[in-house]
């Protein structure tokens, strides 16, 4: 993977300007104000790389001197240029210009924590163990990472990891949850062993229907008896060739905040099923009932509902694959140009499906022009697309992008389908262009 790292280096040295978001608004790269709450001090410990023994005593609203006296903006070690949404748990999205690289660089990979990340100093890949168990496992056992590497064949796949709530900010009426814009998505090459090989080695009983994961992170409420999040997938998805237990991302150990040293990666499904800091996998004889499998979390109305409608838990069904979606990664919204010809490009993906066609419009969707669409590196990878558009005269334009999947399902042009938690938001991405 040596050569491939070069792509990211070259890209990092020459990024597009990072001062506008997808709506052409100026981006405040890191809001310090977001980190002033008393509760955030505890979360900071994992960021400054050291414990704060007296964090409880520090008055709310005081910035630790380490940050107050430095000009360096607040950031998570190993991450660059992310937009922070929340500090407790840490959530940060990737500005769209960093999704322009063929694969998302490790330092630009978004972060979605549900609890406190395990302390970095406690994460030792030599000592890390993964337990396989559950009532439908024939021979429960534990592996070190070295044992996984020795016993099973290693595979590398490019896999899209997209938070189910990505683009929630577009949902009308607004719903609860992180107001992600478009950057809670990444695609890159994960290296590890097939989940299938490991599960089959441990023996899958006939009654198995689901798997579930457990990670090493801890709950914000301090309750040690419950997981922060413990989700899973049906056996059919778990046994797909591309479902991995991974230790590397883009040829490097997985970044700390993205699940170092071991992570489950289930391409094309809600990223919530890709368990970070992976400690245990259970083979279940029923739909996994771990944390955030029930209630309203990661669930969609079983039947479509009207915007704003309340849906009782029993009418909600578990969310599975993600849906067709595309982004324009170049140029950034807000471009002013004297050139009437413009090259646009981006990425498209479609959960378990592939993207069949990519279309762009410069007249608010009245007419569409077919874009060039590349094949994915493998199933569940995103696909690169590009197009050259011509503007008839000076003025204000928007470039809209619309992907169609292999079943003929298109992104909606304006409003994504409403659901109580604002998942699967996939309306067309658009950028503003002024031709002068
Ligand atoms: N152990 C653990 N795994 C987890 C989570 C978590 O909080 N803890 N968050 C999930 C959710 S909701 C998402 S969107 C992805 C985010 O992955 P990332 O932080 O590497 O971007 O991880 C998933 N796996
Ligand atoms: Mo998520």
Sum this structure up briefly:
The chain has 436 residues and is mostly beta strands. 10% of the residues lie in helices and 29% in strands. The protein has a 5-stranded mixed beta sheet. Strands 6, 7, 10, 11 and 12 form a 5-stranded antiparallel beta sheet that branches. A 5-stranded mixed beta sheet has the order 17-24-23-19-20, with no helix packed on it.
Describe the structure.
- Strands 5-4-13-8-9 form a five-stranded mixed beta sheet. Strands 6, 7, 10, 11 and 12 form a five-stranded antiparallel beta sheet that branches.
- It is built from six helices and 24 strands.
- With 436 residues, the protein is mainly beta.
- Bound molecules: the ligand Nc1nc2c(c(=O)[nH]1)N[C@H]1C(S)=C(S)[C@@H](COP(=O)(O)O)O[C@H]1N2 and molybdenum atom.
- Residues 112, 163-165, 271-272 line the site of molybdenum atom (MO).
Main traits of this protein?
436 residues; mainly beta; Sulfite Oxidase, Chain A, domain 2; Immunoglobulin-like; 5-stranded mixed sheet; 5-stranded antiparallel sheet; 6 helices; 24 strands; 10% helix; globular; binds ligand MTE; binds molybdenum atom
């Amino acid at each position: 993977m040596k050569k491939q790292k070069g792509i990211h280096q070259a890209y990092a040295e020459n990024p597009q300007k990072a001062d506008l978001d997808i709506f052409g608004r100026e981006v405040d790269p890191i809001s310090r104000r977001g980190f002033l709450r008393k509760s955030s001090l505890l979360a900071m410990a994992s960021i400054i790389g050291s414990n704060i023994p007296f964090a409880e005593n520090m008055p709310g609203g005081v910035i630790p001197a380490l940050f107050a006296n430095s000009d360096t903006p607040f950031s998570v070690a190993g991450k660059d240029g992310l937009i922070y949404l929340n500090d407790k748990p840490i959530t940060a999205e990737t500005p769209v210009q960093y999704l322009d690289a063929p694969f998302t660089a490790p330092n630009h990979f978004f972060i979605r924590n549900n609890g406190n990340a395990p302390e970095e100093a406690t994460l030792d890949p030599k000592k890390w163990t993964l337990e396989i168990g559950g009532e439908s496992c024939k021979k429960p056992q534990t592996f070190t990472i070295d044992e996984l590497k020795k016993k099973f064949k290693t595979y590398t796949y490019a896999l899209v990891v997209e938070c189910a709530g990505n683009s929630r900010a577009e949902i009308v009426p607004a719903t609860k949850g992180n107001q992600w814009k478009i950057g809670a998505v990444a695609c890159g090459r994960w290296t590890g062993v097939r989940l299938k090989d490991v599960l089959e080695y441990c023996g899958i009983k006939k009654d198995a229907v689901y798997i579930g994961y457990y990670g090493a992170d801890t709950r914000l409420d301090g309750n040690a008896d419950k997981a922060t999040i413990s989700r899973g997938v049906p056996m059919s998805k778990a046994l797909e060739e591309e479902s991995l237990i991974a230790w590397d991302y883009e040829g490097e150990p997985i970044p700390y905040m993205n699940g170092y040293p071991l992570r489950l990666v289930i391409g094309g499904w809600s990223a919530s099923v890709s368990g970070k800091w992976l400690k245990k996998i259970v083979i279940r004889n029923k739909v996994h009932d771990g944390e955030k499998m029930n209630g309203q979390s990661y669930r969609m109305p079983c039947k479509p509902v009207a915007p704003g409608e309340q849906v009782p838990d029993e009418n909600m069904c578990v969310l599975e694959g993600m849906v067709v979606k595309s982004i324009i990664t170049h140029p950034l919204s807000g471009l002013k140009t004297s050139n009437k010809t413009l090259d646009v490009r981006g990425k498209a993906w479609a959960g378990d499906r592939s993207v069949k066609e990519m279309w762009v419009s410069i007249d608010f969707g009245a007419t569409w022009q077919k874009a060039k669409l590349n094949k994915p590196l493998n199933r569940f990878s995103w696909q690169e697309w590009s197009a050259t558009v011509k503007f008839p005269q000076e003025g204000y334009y928007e470039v809209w992008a619309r992907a169609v999947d292999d079943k003929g399902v298109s992104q909606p042009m304006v409003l994504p389908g409403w659901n109580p938690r604002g998942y699967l938001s996939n309306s067309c991405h658009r950028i503003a262009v002024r031709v002068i």
